[in-house]
Structure formats: C-alpha cells, structure tokens
Design a protein that fits this description.
Layout (H helix, E strand, L loop, with lengths): L1 E5 L4 H12 L3 E6 L11 E4 L5 H8 L6 E4 L7 H11 L6 E4 L41 H17 L3 E6 L2 E2 L7 H11 L1 E6 L5 E2 L2 E2 H13 L4 E5 L5 E2 H11 L4 E6 L1 H6 L4 E2 L2 E2 L13 H5 L7 H13 L17 H13 L2
Parallel strand pairs: 1-2, 1-4, 2-3, 4-5, 5-6, 6-11, 7-10, 8-13, 14-15
Antiparallel strand pairs: 9-12
Amino acid sequence: MRILVLGGTWFLGRSVAVEAHRRGWDVTAFSRGRSGQDVPGVRPVRGDRTEAADLNRLADEGPWDAVIDTSSSELPPRDVRLAARALRDAARRWVHVSTVSVYAGWPHQPLTEASEILDCPSDVNESFGYTGADGSPTKYGFQKAGGERAVAEVFGEGAVFLRPGVILGPGEYVGRLPWWLNRAHRGGPVLAPAPASRIIQPTDVRDVAAFAVDQAAAATGGAYNVAHPEGMAFGDFLHACFTLTQADAHAVWVEPEVLIEHGVRQWTELPLWRTHAGVWSVNSSRAVSAGLKCRPLRETIADTWAWLRADGRPVDHPRWAEHGLATEKEAKIIASLASTP
C-alpha cells in the first residue's frame, strides 16, 4: 500500500503515519514542517495545503492508494475541496477525519450514522455557519459538514468519513487528559462533576489511527462514528488518574446545577464534562463491525501520564490554555460547599 497522510507530524496524523509505516506501507506525509517531527521512515513533503501550486506539486509525487486527511480541522470547506480536487487523479480513496459535531443533533441527542447532518455548501469560506445560543449547533460543525461534502463531491464512493468525538492519548495537544492528570498529581480535594456513574466515550489516538489505516485499505466507503463502545464511568476515570499519579487526592462530587451556578464552564474548565444528554451517547457499532478496536481507557490514561512524566511536550496550540479550572476558583467553590448548611 502507498498512502499519503495530510499532516503526519503530530498527534493523530503522526499516529497514522507511525501505524502505516509499522505495517510496512510506503508512507508520504505532507505538512508545512512548522510543528511536530517527521516520523522516521516516512517520506516528508513540505508545502501548504491551501496553496494550489503546492498541492499540484504534491500530486506529482503520487499516485497513492489512499489519502488520509488528518489536518483539515481548522480549514474551511473550500480549502478541503481545493485539496481533494488537486489529488483526485493521484489517489483512488480519501479517508477524511471529521467530527461528531457535523450532526445537527449533537450534543443533545443520541447519534448514529443515520442522524441528520448540518447543511453547509462545499465552496464556502470560514465565515459560514453559526453557533447556537446554547452552544449547539456550532459554526465548527457547519464547517466540518461542508468539508465532508467537498470530499464526497470529488471522491464519491471512494470517500470515507471518520467522526470521532474526543481523542485522548500521548501527544495530546488540546490538554483535556493532561489537565486532569496534573490536577490529580497536585493532590487534595478535587472538584468533580456528578454523577460519578456518568459514562464517557473518549478514544485513544492510536486506536483511531489504526482504524483510519484499516479504512485506507478497505473496499467500501461511508461514514463511521468513532467512539469508545464501552466507555468509562467518570468516577473510574478520576480514580485511575489518582492511582496512576500516586496522588493524595480525593474527589468532591458536585451536582451540575451547582457547578453551573458557580460559573464553571462545561467542556473546558472541567474537561470532558458536559450535561447535554447526547454528548456521550454516540453509537459506534458500525465502526466496531468494520474493525474498530478500542483499548481500555485506563491504558490510555497510564500511557499519557508516562508521556507527561517523560517530559512530554505537545505541539503548542491555543486550545491547551482553554482547558482547566483555576486553582483559586476550585478552592473557592469547595470552600463554599463546606460552609453550606
């Protein structure tokens, strides 16, 4: 197999390149070379995927059996279409890493691949779409739906769409799991969003990468929700963080309405916490039937902590600073709970 990875130097893109190379495939990675490091044994090609001249030069490096696009998360649909059109004659298949945010019902409703998709043209710029008053739908979701449409228009039945929710693991640049691990390591009372029994469905970056590589070699197209089929209770998640960091810490479970009353922002100040009914109700049975295998999340937590302890340094990204509750705010909320009769 010969594949082209758009991205390929950090987090998911790097994991895809590593996995494909491990299988003995001929792998090309296209990136600007500004972040992350090249994977040994993978052929790097430098360029900007928003520039037609760079894409045409890249196409001359082909052909490939498949393209795996891991680098379109911040691009408008028209730039996704530009790349797809430039590479159409250089590849027979396009595996597109998208998001569950493309669904009109996310995060309010349980989701399957048959759920309604947000409507976005394939030729629009980054201004298209809007974010609802309650944070749903999102402009991001509209943009990603337009990106999917762009790929479908160009590659037809050769297009595959992977729709993950939250991806965690070594190399994470968003900072969700690293924040919880670092907070656990600091010890003491840890503000925790009740109920402890709430199931979350993040997937390990290496498992998403393996599934993407599988799909590059598959014979059929279509869409797949990529979420952990068993998930993990939030209480077990925190306990694993406490145990693996050998922390003298304990959870202070607080009901959602109390957290909201104190102005705690969902999804960012307490990463992975969101009250919407459908946020962790993503059906991934189609992907599992197609070969998705998800390791126990405790293994993801352990490996991420080992990476951090080994001076793991993610690629600098503005989203890292968005995640986590300030120490002073956490302490103030916990103190107020103790003083409540």
